[in-house]
Design goal:
Largest sheet: 6 strands, antiparallel
Pfam families: CHASE3, GAF_2, HATPase_c, HisKA, Response_reg
Radius of gyration: 47 Å
Strand order of the largest sheet: 3-2-1-8-7-4
Shape: elongated
Number of helices: 28
Catalytic activity: ATP + protein L-histidine = ADP + protein N-phospho-L-histidine
Number of domains: 6
Helix content: 55-70%
Enzyme class: transferase
Strand content: 5-15%
Structural class: alpha/beta
GO molecular function, one term: phosphorelay sensor kinase activity
Mean pLDDT: 76
Number of strands: 30
Keywords: Coiled coil, Kinase, Membrane, Phosphoprotein, Transferase, Transmembrane, Transmembrane helix, Two-component regulatory system
Low-confidence stretches: 665-676, 718-737, 982-1001
């Protein structure tokens, strides 16, 4: 189709118009999309800034609230209220800004009640603080509840911030896509326009001019779009920089760390070559260098400026930025790996927020202007607030430390003042009593003078009558004592004479009842069982008679220890559950909630009483009846154990008779229930031994209630001798053939039984029926082990044991005592491996030979070290192995590993640290006690923890050896291990093979030693002197430090010093320093006696020259242990 030129021009013009309209509309729409995306990006930045401000205000409420609680300063209360108001405003603003975001709206709605509750919680604590003290706040509010609220708030804040940051990333991508679309549209439209212009160039110049106009318009639009993009990038740069700085400044940092983070971020963001941040000291008004960036620090103290001093001080004074240019290049240089650079400008910018807080000094290549200046002004307030918060935290910490020190000093002063007041009160009361007594005596003296002559004659007659009565009483007392001694000796001898044949009866009856050769009829086996049961009943009767005799003669002893009440109930249930089920009797136990968890008494004696009471209850209760054990607290000092049954009851007239020996409520010959009548008599006397009482309430035909009342903590009037633990149970190991066993027994029947058992175990036996023969055989045959009876002809067993241990040739032979005499402590003390009480059963004999099998000398001693510090463990392992090559050390880094090691192997000694990562040392010790740990295993506590009296008492349950870390504690620990292993080797007869240990045991180290006791309290001096003298020490006494120095000078031969710390004229610290200044006394052991009033007493004592220390009140066992170690070291 042919077109006219005009039509072609019109067509070209039309096409140009269409193209221009298309490009213009497209560009306009692209600009609109870009502006929309940019607006959303700016909106997201504002939301993130709002979140950061909200987070900062929340942190400010926490900090100011805590500050007010600690200091009570109303300034912090004002800051807290201001932050709380801002939080409410920021929440409303955030909700308005995120109305289009359902998830953010839901989060802010969830956050609002949490913040209100958290701020309300803080306000409640502030109100309590306003009305009381910090202790009231801690007592009346739950810290964990506040922490839970804060954690919930932090989670929501983090989710809100992360959501907005994700939106920001998506919107930036959309904005970039819009920008790219606009650019493509412009380029495409321009190219098409140029093509049309070239086509129409030949037709009309006006069309070209129009096209040029359109192109200029498009170019102007592009430039406008680029300006908008640059502005958005600039604002994005500012907001990102502020957000990064706030992120780096978050958290509780020190002022130096915060300043370093701030200056590093600032210099990196603005491109500064050098930077320094000076913080204003509010008290001195001095600007001190707190952080720097690539700043060459001069030697010496950190630079500081006063107001109007230097560029920094002048900028702070004028509160405006100052700049210096044209510097010499050699004056300020920045060192790099490639060379040195010199900044052209130095600028000082003040950081102002409610007053000058700091000054930032920057080294720049060009002045800080434009976006960088705007950035600094944007973040200067954030830096100022962060600095103020850091300074406030530092002041709060200092205030807290000062309050703690003052509290400790106040407590010490109060204790001293209380002691002084008590002493003054006592003296005042004594003076008043003396005056009253003097007045009364004056009145009575006048009357006495009148009556004196009348009473003189009467007194003479009374004295003569009293003398006659005293002689009669002494004669009767001697007769009673003689009768008691005769009775005790008779019962002891009779017990031995009964036990010796009974021993054979029980063993042979047991063997017959087992019928291993199957040559007995069932009836004969039954007869043998009856004989064995009757023998056991006879043994029980003998034991009851002996118990009664011991109690009546005052020979019975108690072994005191903490006893858990729940354990008592468990033991009784396990013993009598089957009895109750067999008799179809309902057996119930219960513990009152107010009952103490444990009592301090003799567990064995207490369980003996309860077993007797429950046995009687079940015996006298018919089928279908009930028996109840009820444990309750009568008062804070007394616990009641009540055994109630629904049995036959006791007539009122017989309720006291049942407590008499060999008496029962029904004493007739045709009585229904058997028994000796000793149980309740022994139980009542045992109850009296334990400081309690045993009574009964009963109605005939309705049942009885026996009430055992015991003190929660039993303190005996006289010191009870400790009981000796039973020999440890050791696994049976077969012995090699050819081992020789010497059996020393005067009873031929029992001797033959032992011989047969020994041969069955693979031993060759040598029999001796006399003590002198036993000594000859021991030297001639040097047996593997010896079974020794005590009551022997010619030479008794005690003498045999003594001579065996005194002779170097027989000292190492293990001796196992088998006797009818109950004197285990004496046998163990004299060197016996074990002490077995007649009569014996077959199981007892198996245990004897297992002990013989395990009593051979051990070549390697195993020590378990429970220590989480690897350095400590390696050091202890090294020094122990250097001390003795036959020691193997096993390491456990925590309590779990320790229990695993104990379950896998047997250890001679366990060293325990109380501070472990997975459990406390106390918990580990309880687990070890319940794990069946052999009694021979020594436990040593080695800890750096300060122990109070309660902790020390708890540790005494498990060990008497406690070594506190510090000073020369490793040497003491080494000696404690050496002392123990030495005792074990002597007990196992291995002392001769290890002469290099050569450590004296017990009081041998103390006897004959001379000790100086320096203490101004004469009561302490008397008590300690008496105790030390009982252990063989010669004690020299001094009343203060100066007198102690005089005693050292005029009393030669002093080998150890016990030094009190708080004394008049010269205290213990100064006295120890004087002693250590004398070269001749540098090695003299000094044990400091401290009251442990302050935490650093131990370090002060060691620094003053103490070798070791012990806290008051003094634990005598611990003091004697320390003295043994230090005196042994000084030998």
């Amino acid at each position: 189709m042919n077109f006219l030129p005009a039509n072609k021009t019109l067509l070209g013009f039309s096409l140009s118009i269409v193209l221009i309209l298309f490009v213009g509309i497209t560009s306009y729409l692209t600009i609109l999309r870009y502006d929309d995306n940019a607006g959303w990006v700016n909106h997201t930045h504002e939301v993130i800034s709002n979140i950061n401000e909200l987070d900062r205000r929340i942190t400010e409420t926490e900090a100011t609230g805590r500050a007010y609680l600690l200091s009570g300063d109303d300034r912090f209360l004002v800051l807290f209220n201001d932050a709380a108001v801002h939080i409410e405003f920021l929440q409303d603003r955030f909700r308005e800004m995120t109305m289009d975001n359902f998830y953010q709206t839901r989060r802010i709605d969830s956050l609002r009640p949490l913040l209100a509750e958290r701020i309300g919680f803080i306000r409640k604590r502030i109100q309590i603080r306003q009305a009381g003290t910090l202790a009231d706040v801690l007592a009346q509010t739950d810290m964990h509840y506040g922490l839970a609220l804060q954690a919930a708030v932090d989670v929501l804040i983090t989710e809100m911030r992360e959501d907005e940051e994700l939106l920001l990333t998506e919107r930036n991508k959309k904005m970039d896509a819009s920008k790219l679309g606009a650019l493509l549209t412009d380029v495409g439209g321009t190219l098409v326009g140029l093509a049309v212009a070239l086509a129409l160039l030949w037709y009309i110049m006006r069309t070209f001019a129009e096209r040029e106009r359109v192109r200029a318009s498009l170019q102007e639009s592009n430039e406008s779009l680029e300006k908008v993009s640059e502005e958005n990038q600039r604002r994005n740069w500012l907001l990102t920089g502020a957000s990064d700085l706030n992120t780096r400044l978050r958290g509780e940092m020190s002022l130096a760390a915060l300043a370093q983070e701030a200056i590093s971020e600032l210099c990196t963001r603005v491109g500064a070559q050098l930077g320094a941040l000076y913080v204003m000291n509010e008290e001195t008004k001095i600007l001190q260098l707190a952080g720097s960036f690539a700043y060459p620090l001069p030697p010496g103290p950190a630079p500081e400026f006063a107001l109007r001093e230097g560029l920094v001080g002048q900028a702070a004074f004028e509160n405006r930025p100052l700049s210096v240019d044209g510097l010499l290049k050699d004056r300020f240089r920045v060192r790099t790996g490639l060379g040195d650079l010199a900044p052209r400008f130095i600028e000082a910018w003040p950081v102002d927020h409610e007053g000058i807080t700091a000054v930032v000094e920057l080294g720049l290549e060009e002045p800080l202007a434009g976006s960088r200046e705007e950035y600094f002004r944007l973040i200067s307030k954030d830096i100022a607030v962060a600095i103020q918060m850091a300074v406030s935290r530092t002041r709060l910490n200092e205030l807290n430390d000062r309050l703690q020190r003052q509290a400790e000093e106040l407590q010490l002063q109060q204790e001293e003042l209380q002691a002084t007041n008590e002493e003054l009160t006592r003296q005042s009361e004594q003076l008043q009593a003396s005056e009253e007594e003097l007045r009364v005596q004056q009145e009575e003296l006048m009357q006495a003078n009148l009556q004196l002559e009348e009473k003189a004659q009467q007194l003479k007659e009374n004295v003569e009558a009293l003398e006659i009565a005293r002689r009669e009483i002494m004669n009767k007392a001697e007769e009673v004592e003689r009768n008691s001694r005769y009775k005790t000796e008779f019962l002891a001898n009779m017990s031995h004479e009964l036990r010796t044949p009974l021993n054979s009866i029980l063993i042979l009856a047991k063997l017959l009842s087992e019928n291993k050769d199957t040559n007995l009829t069932d009836k004969q086996v039954e007869y043998a069982g009856v004989i064995h049961k009757s023998g056991q009943d006879l043994l029980t009767l003998i034991n009851d008679v002996l118990d009664l005799s011991k109690i009546e003669a005052g020979k019975a002893t108690v072994s005191l220890a903490p006893v858990p009440v729940t354990q008592l109930r468990t033991d009784m249930v396990s013993v009598f559950r089957e009895v109750a089920e067999a008799g179809q009797i309902q057996f119930t136990t219960d513990i009152d909630p107010l009952c103490p968890k444990e009592i301090y008494t003799d567990k064995d004696r207490l369980e003996q009483i309860l077993r007797n009471l429950l046995s009687n209850a079940f015996k006298f209760t018919h089928e279908g009846g009930t028996v109840r054990l009820h444990i309750a607290a009568v008062n804070p000092q007394t616990v009641a154990f009540r055994v109630t049954d629904s049995g036959i009851g006791i007539p009122e007239g017989q309720q006291e008779v049942i407590f008499e020996a060999f008496r029962q409520a029904d004493g007739s010959t045709n009585r229904k229930y058997g028994g000796t009548g000793l149980g309740l008599s022994i139980s009542r006397q045992l109850a009296a031994m334990l400081g309690g009482s045993l009574d009964v309430e009963s109605v005939a035909g309705k049942g009885s209630t026996f009430s055992l009342l015991l003190p929660v903590v039993f303190t005996p009037k006289l010191e009870d001798s400790g009981t000796i633990p039973d020999p440890p149970a050791v696994g049976e190991e077969p012995l090699l053939a050819g081992k020789v066993l010497l059996i020393v027994e005067d009873d031929p029947v029992f001797s033959n039984i032992l011989r047969d058992f020994a041969r069955d175990k693979g031993y060759e036996t040598v029999l001796a029926s006399r003590g002198d023969t036993a000594l000859q055989y021991a030297k001639a045959y040097l047996p593997t082990a010896i079974l020794l009876d005590i009551q022997l002809p010619v030479v008794d067993g005690w003498t045999v044991l003594k001579r065996l241990k005194a002779d170097a040739a027989t000292r190492s032979i293990p001796v196992h005592v088998i006797s009818g005499f109950d004197d285990r402590a004496r046998g163990i003390e004299m060197g016996a491996i074990s002490f077995i009480h007649k009569p014996l059963g077959k199981d007892d004999l198996d245990g004897v030979f297992s002990a013989i099998s395990a009593s051979g000398p051990s070549t390697v001693k195993k020590v378990l070290i429970v220590e989480d510090d690897a350095v400590q463990w390696e050091y202890l392992d090294r020094i122990l192995r250097e001390k003795e090559r036959d020691i193997t050390c096993v390491h456990a880094a925590d309590g779990g590993q320790a229990l695993q090691r104990v379950g896998e192997d047997i250890f001679d000694c366990i060293i325990v640290d109380l501070t472990l990562p997975d459990m406390s040392g106390f918990t580990l010790l309880e687990h070890l006690e319940n794990s069946g740990l052999p009694s021979k295993t020594k436990i040593i506590v080695h800890t750096g923890k300060d122990l109070d009296k309660e902790d020390a008492l708890r540790l005494r349950r498990f060990t008497n050896t406690i070594v506190l870390k510090g000073g020369r504690s490793h040497e003491r620990l080494l000696d404690e291990v050496a002392l123990f292993l030495h005792k074990v080797e002597e007990k196992n007869g291995d002392a001769l093979s290890r002469p290099h240990w050569n450590i004296p045991s017990g009081d041998d180290v103390l006897k004959g030693k001379k000790a100086l006791l320096v203490d101004d309290d004469m009561r302490n001096v008397f008590a300690l002197s008496a105790t030390l003298q009982e252990h063989g020490l010669e004690v020299v006494v001094a009343g203060d430090g100066r007198e102690g120095l005089d005693r050292l000078a005029d009393q030669p031969g002093i080998q150890i010093v016990l030094m009190d710390i708080m004394m008049p004229e010269m205290d213990g610290y100064e006295a120890m320093r004087h002693i250590r200044s004398d070269k001749a006394l540098m090695g003299l052991p000094i044990i400091a006696l401290t009251a442990k009033a302050m935490k650093d007493d131990r370090e002060k004592c060691i620094a003053a020259g103490a070798s070791d220390y012990i806290t008051k009140p003094v634990d005598i066992d611990q003091l004697l242990s320390l003295m043994r170690v230090w005196l042994y070291n000084s030998l």
